[in-house]
């Protein structure tokens, strides 16, 4: 068979053998793509009438087009050889996966969501699989699950001379694999959606075990929520199971831990999130519960999207909730919180209750996006924060170039659900085109990561994306302002001030040339004036006030105000407002810690900086601040331990060397005897006098003055300072 040509398909290699006969990889010479060809055994189709029925069934299956279902392309005969042409699906089957050992609960839930999504699409066309098992489920290299041989158990269920194997049943009445078959299916009863749900439950249960022995004797640790889902799938009575795959999908998504995309593992590692090119309009009436009163929802936050796509599409996890929130922020009477970034939210471990408590909202907006090269499939859900009741859900499909229209449509329907009398209009801050908006959101995604961790590759990705957004939409002032911020973050990471400062200033001025009220630009200019230390406090404060006026919902505007205010008590209030707007913005608790220290509340300040480090333990600027506070508290050994953690970050370009030098000098002087630490003492003295300047030197000058004032050379220090 190898090398033979069947119609316009050239057979390349044999890749398997099963109930339908031999399976080959072939090359479609018309469309120049790889396909799989299932060559039916001789005599499987007895006559022309049977062949006609087979062709009709294959045609019905070919209309089933879904990201989680293997596509049927063709059925043909040549030289007495009947063959079915299907999508070639690379990867490994789940029976191969499970041989490696039980999967984690999160992995199994992700697989279950995709399996349910594929079943929804098939069942809505009246197609039942009948033979779901790990061998018929394949994980592709990108993490997408594909259901293989959909409906083929029925196609091959013609009478045969003898059974092909002892474990497989194929008669006119039913077909399938006994271990995974529902009781009514094994008894010869009709198959429907509920029999597939039983089989799906068996598959998911087996994925949690090391072998196919009963779950009671060989199951890995499973949460009570997931166990209840599996138990309902596997109920002996079909009437007590989930009555549709939709119900199963809702339960998996609302009861099990939620996952978000990350740069290093984009939820594609062991089965991605739900592929949502399916009809998924679910109300509570379908679940037997009364509809919720949406007027009771006073505040919402949109959480990062689950993403099914390539690594390049990871940024959509943050893009979609931000664009949705931008649209919803204009709805009067509804508080729309700034959405958290996926990099931040991952640290919650999928704990939706904790997220809701942190953001203090009454409802959450959840979304999933399947990203194809030219198209996007989006599902949006409104979920009650307390109890996680599904209030509303719908799905949308559109061209990637129609991203803004797609998300605006979703936001409009959300608005109608939440505030029927309101209306969405055009919103400031959204780019002029979908391509520009996507490029801008990609820039924000990588900028946030660079801000938190100072990895160079994130800087390069972000800069490139912002420049692309600005080239696509020259009026997008926020893109220019964000480039300015990007260089501000780079300054903190140790970029030479002579290189960084002109770029910060130039890009901020460019943003203001486009829009003189751009709050993001005024915020970074205010910070720049403070960092240089040469400008009057009034100038810093004036720019900060313009920032808050131009971008009142921008957390960095309030941090700029904190820096510019002459009162530590007022600065603390600005920091708290920044944290209220974005509870996971690491700079808010970090800067508030500085204000608490200024007020002499060092222990409270340490608690506050620990909040920032709980969000991002590797937050370089937060670690530097913690060392400063530990020095003030006299906890030198703890400070030295953090210093050891920071030192490698200097070599990696993640911490400004001057900052590290200043806190190391403080450690040296505090530990010095009368005759030690002379050079470090002199450097601190210069810093306290303002003779040693580097970005944000003032943040280190105050601790230096405190150290000098309490040093054993106190009299000498005072004389020198005078």
Q: What is the rounded distance between the termini?
A: 95 Å
Q: What amount of the residues lies in strands?
A: 5-15%
Enumerate the strands of the largest sheet in spatial order, edge to edge or round the barrel: 1-2-3-4-6-5
Shape: elongated
**Structure summary, number of beta strands:** 17
Radius of gyration based on Cα positions: 31 Å
> What oligomeric state do the depicted chains represent?
single chain
Give helix % range.
40-55%
Mean pLDDT: 80
- The stretches of 5 or more residues where confidence is low (pLDDT under 50) are 155-174, 211-219, 256-292, 712-722
Largest sheet: 6 strands, antiparallel
Query: How large is the count of helical segments?
Result: 29
Structural category: alpha+beta
Please render the helix and strand layout as text.
Elements (H helix, E strand, L loop, with lengths): L4 E2 L2 E10 L2 E8 L4 E7 L8 H15 L9 E7 L2 E7 L4 E2 H6 L5 H19 L13 E3 L5 E3 L4 H4 L13 E2 L4 E2 L6 H4 L6 H15 L7 H4 L5 H10 L11 H11 L43 E4 L3 E3 L7 H13 L6 E2 L5 H4 L6 H8 L3 E9 L3 E10 L5 E10 L3 H16 L15 H20 L2 H17 L4 H16 L4 H18 L4 H14 L4 H14 L4 H10 L3 H14 L5 H12 L3 H14 L4 H13 L3 H16 L5 H15 L6 H12 L8 H13 L3 H8 L1
Parallel strand pairs: 12-14, 12-15, 13-15
Antiparallel strand pairs: 1-2, 2-3, 3-4, 4-6, 5-6, 7-8, 8-9, 10-11, 15-16, 16-17
Question: What are the main properties of this structure?
Answer:
722 residues, 17 strands, 6-stranded mixed sheet, 13% strand, 49% helix, 29 helices, alpha+beta, 6-stranded antiparallel sheet
């Amino acid at each position: 068979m190898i090398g033979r040509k069947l119609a316009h398909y050239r057979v390349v290699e044999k890749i398997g053998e099963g109930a339908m006969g031999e399976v080959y990889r072939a090359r479609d010479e018309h469309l120049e793509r790889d396909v799989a060809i299932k060559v039916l055994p001789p005599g499987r189709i007895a006559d022309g009438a049977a062949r006609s029925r087979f062709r009709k069934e294959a045609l019905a299956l070919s209309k089933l087009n879904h990201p989680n279902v293997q596509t049927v392309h063709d059925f043909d005969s040549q030289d007495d050889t009947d063959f079915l042409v299907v999508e070639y699906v690379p990867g490994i089957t789940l029976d191969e996966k499970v041989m490696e050992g039980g999967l984690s609960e999160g992995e199994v839930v992700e697989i279950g969501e995709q399996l349910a999504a594929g079943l929804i699409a098939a069942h809505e066309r009246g197609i039942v699989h009948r033979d779901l098992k790990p061998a018929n489920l394949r994980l592709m290299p990108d993490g997408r699950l594909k259901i293989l041989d959909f409906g083929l158990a029925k196609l091959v269920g013609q009478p045969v001379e003898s059974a092909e194997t002892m474990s497989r049943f194929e008669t006119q009445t039913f077909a399938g694999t006994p271990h995974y078959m529902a009781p009514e299916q094994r008894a010869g009863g009709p198959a429907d959606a509920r029999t597939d749900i039983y089989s799906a439950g068996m598959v998911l249960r087996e994925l949690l075990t090391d072998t196919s022995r009963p779950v009671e004797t060989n199951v890995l640790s499973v949460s009570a929520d997931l166990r209840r889902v599996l138990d309902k799938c596997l109920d002996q009575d079909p009437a007590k199971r989930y009555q549709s795959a939709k119900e199963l999908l809702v339960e998996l998504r609302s009861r099990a831990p939620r996952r978000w995309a990350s740069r290093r593992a984009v939820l594609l590692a062991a089965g991605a999130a739900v592929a949502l090119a399916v009809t998924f309009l679910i109300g509570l009436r379908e679940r037997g519960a009364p509809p919720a009163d949406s007027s009771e929802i006073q505040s919402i936050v949109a959480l990062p999207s689950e993403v099914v796509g390539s690594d390049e599409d990871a940024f959509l996890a943050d893009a979609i909730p931000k664009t949705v929130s931008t649209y919803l922020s204009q709805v009067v009477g509804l508080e729309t919180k700034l959405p958290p970034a996926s990099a931040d939210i991952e640290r919650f471990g999928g704990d939706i209750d904790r997220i809701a408590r942190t953001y203090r909202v009454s409802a959450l907006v959840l979304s999933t996006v399947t990203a194809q090269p030219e198209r996007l499939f989006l599902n949006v859900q409104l979920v009650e924060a307390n109890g996680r009741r599904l209030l509303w859900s719908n799905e949308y499909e559109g061209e990637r170039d129609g991203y803004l229209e797609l998300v605006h449509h979703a936001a409009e329907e959300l608005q109608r659900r939440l505030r029927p009398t309101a209306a969405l209009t055009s919103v400031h801050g959204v780019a002029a085109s979908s391509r520009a908006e996507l490029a801008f959101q990609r820039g924000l995604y990588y900028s946030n990561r660079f801000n938190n961790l100072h990895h160079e590759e994130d800087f390069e990705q972000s800069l490139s994306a912002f420049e692309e957004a600005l080239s696509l939409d020259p009026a997008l002032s926020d893109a220019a302002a964000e480039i300015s911020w990007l260089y501000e973050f780079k300054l903190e990471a140790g970029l030479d001030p002579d290189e960084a400062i002109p770029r910060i200033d130039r890009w901020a001025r460019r943003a203001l040339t486009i829009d003189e009220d751009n709050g993001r630009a005024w915020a970074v200019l205010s910070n720049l004036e403070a960092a240089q230390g040469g400008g009057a406090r009034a100038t810093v404060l004036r720019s900060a006030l313009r920032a808050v006026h131009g971008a009142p919902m921008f957390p960095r505007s309030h941090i700029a105000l904190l820096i510019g205010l002459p009162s530590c008590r007022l600065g603390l209030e600005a920091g708290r407002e920044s944290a209220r707007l974005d509870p996971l913005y690491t700079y808010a608790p970090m800067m508030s810690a500085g204000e608490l220290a200024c007020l002499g509340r060092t222990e409270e300040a340490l608690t506050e900086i620990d909040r920032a480090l709980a969000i991002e333990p590797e937050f370089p600027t937060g670690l530097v601040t913690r060392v400063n506070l530990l020095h003030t508290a006299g906890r030198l050994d703890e400070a030295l331990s953090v210093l050891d953690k920071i030192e490698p970050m200097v070599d990696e370009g993640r911490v400004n060397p001057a900052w590290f030098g200043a806190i190391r000098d403080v450690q040296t002087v505090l530990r010095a005897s009368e005759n030690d630490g002379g050079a470090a003492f002199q450097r601190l003295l210069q810093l306290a006098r303002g003779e040693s300047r580097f970005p944000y030197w003032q943040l280190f000058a105050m601790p230096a003055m405190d150290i000098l004032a309490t040093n054993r050379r106190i009299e000498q220090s005072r004389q020198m300072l005078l």
